Amino acid sequence: MGILVKNGEIITAAERFVGDVYCADGKIVAVGPGLEKRSSDDTVIDASGQIILPGGVDAHVHMELPFMGTESSDDFETGTAAGVAGGTTSIIDFVIPNRNQPLLDGLAQWNEKAKKAVADYAFHMAVTWFGDNTLSEMQTCVREKGIPSFKTFMAYKGAIGVDDTELIQVMEGAKGLGALVTVHCEHGDAVVSLQKKLIREGKTHPRYHAQSRPSIIEGEATNRAIVLARLTGEPIYIVHVTCKESVAAIAEARSRGQIVLAETCPQYLLLDDSVYEKPDFEGAAYVMSPPIRPKADGHQEALWAGLASGLIQTIATDHCPFHNVGQKDRGINDFTKIPNGAAGIENRLGLMWTYGVLAGKIDVHKFVDLFATQPAKIFGLYPRKGSIVPGGDADLVVFDPTATQTISAKTHHHRCDRSIFEGFEVKGKPSHVIVNGRVQFKDGKLDVVRGAGRYLPRKLEKSSLMGAS
User: Does this model's pTM top 0.90?
Assistant: First the structure.
C-alpha cells in the first residue's frame, strides 16, 4: 500500500513547485505533477493549500541521558514521538560514556535504550577521555559501527569534559579516520572558578547559572577549538552557538578557508536572560549550557545574521528535558546542582517558520536547508534524509501554513512539566507527518509504533563538509 500526497507546494533547499509525491515500501518513488494512485489500497492525502517539506533532521538531542545525578525525562520512545509531532523524523543522539569507560561499552548501552525509538536515529560518539585504546575504538566506531562523528566537551571538567591535550588527540585521530569532531565550547576551568566564587558569595539563584558562564567564556573556547582544529588540519563543528563572540571566531576562520561548521538552537534565537528572573524557581527551567544570553548585547542579531549568511549551517534543539519538580529542584539552594537542559524537539519547525521565515529573517529554502538538508548532508544521511527525491526515505511533512497554535507544557508531547517556549504563538503546523512511508501524525494525533525506528549507520562525504563551508 502506497501513499500519494497530492497538490502540495513542494519546498526543498533548492526548489519550490506545486506537485505530488508518491511513496511505497518506505521510499519516495516519484515526485512531480499529475501523479496517480498505483493501487486501490493507496492512501491519498490532499495537500492543497499546504506545503510539503522533507522530514526534519535534528542533529543534536539527548534522550534518556544520565546527567548530574538524574536522567533526561524523554526516553527514545517519547522523545522521538514528540519529534514526529513537530515534523522531525530523524535524530542524531549522543553516546556519552562515563569518564574511563570504553567507548564501545557506552555504545552498547545506547543501542539498548534506542530500541524504543519510533523514528530513525543515528549516534555521535562522545570522547570523554583519551586512553590507550581510545584511538582503536574510534576506528571501530567509524569503520564498523557507522559513527563518523565524535563529540567533545570543553566544559564539565572532571566529569565528561576533556582537556586540550585530549582534544588534540581526538582531532588527530578523527582526521586520520576521515571523521568530524563536534565541540561544546566553554572554558571549563573558568566556569568552575566562577561557580565557586558565586556560591561562596551566597548567590544560589538560577540567574547565577548564566553569570557563571558569560559569553566571553564561550567565545574564548570557540576560538581555541578552532585554533586546535587548524593545528591538526581537522574539520570542526561547533554545537549550540549562542553568542556574537563565537560567531566572530567562526567568521574569521571561514574567511581564511578553514572548514568550521556550526549550529544554533531556537532558544538562543528567541529567548533572553530575563527568563532567569521568573519567580518561584521557574527560572530553573531555562538552565542549560551554554546559557541564554542578554538581549541588549546583540547576540541574537549575530546569530540570525550568521544563519542568513551561511556562517551557521544548522538549527538543532539540544533537546535534553528535565522536570522542574523532582529534577531541576535538586538545585533549589545551589544553581550548580540544577540539571542542565530543556525540551524543544517538537517546537523547532513552528518556531523557525514563524520567527524566521514569516519574520523575514530567512527565506523558505534556507529554512529547509537548516531544518533538514544541511544536517543530513554534513552528517552523512543525504539524500536518504533531508530531501524529496526518488529513492530517498519516505519522510515527509505536510505543513499547513495557515494553522495556529500556542505552545504550552499542557499540550506538548514532551515528557516534561515545563516548556521554555510557554505562550509562544506560532503560525503553521504539520497536518500530516509521514515517517518511513507510514502516516504517524495526522490532525494533531500521533499514531506511532514503539521500536519502529531504525538505526542509521553513516559515512561522511568530504564534499558535503566542503560544500557547507
Answer: yes
